[in-house]
Amino acid sequence: MSTKTKVLVIFAPTASGKTALTRELFSPQGSHFILKAEIISADSQAVYKEMDIGTAKPEADLQKEIPHHLINLLTPDRQYNVSDFVNAADKACEEIAVRGNLPVVVGGTGFYIRNFLYGLAPTPVSDEKLRKELKERIAREGNQALYDELSRIDPESAAKIHPNDAYRICRALEVYYLSGKKRSEYQTEGQGKLRDKFDFKFLVLQPEREELYDRIRRRVDLMFEAGLEEEVRSLVAKGYTKNSPGMKAIGYSEWFGEDGSFLPNSNNFSSADIEKIKEEIKHHSTKYAKKQYTYIRDIPGSQVINFSATENDYEKFVNICKNLLSML
Question: Residue 11: which residues within 8 A CB-CB, separation 6 or more?
Answer without folding.
Answer: 42, 107, 108, 110, 113, 202, 203, 204, 205, 292, 296
